[in-house]
Give the backbone structure.
Amino acid sequence: MQTTRQQKIERLIQKDLGDIFLAYARTMPGTLISVSEVRISPDLAIAHVYLSIYPQQRAAEVMEQVDAQTSRIRGELGGLERHQLRIIPELHFHLDDTIDRMEHIDELLHR
């Protein structure tokens, strides 16, 4: 069960990472990156960030680049949240495939 503080921090991280990835996606024309969900550990030390990437064909390439730049992204996040959080959580990025699953279910229902 999550505390109210965890939920507030998750929303804050999601908003700020969304802004960071908006700027990051501008360097990659034709790619859209959105932060669909953030889950933070009870001790606020680890944040699991779920990214939705469009088009899906570039997802693996984008995830490799994001994983390679995790420390830079965490640094930018620290700059944005330095007054709200004492410790910036370690970031773990995951690909969110919810949209793909929804499309697959939709295809099955239309058959």
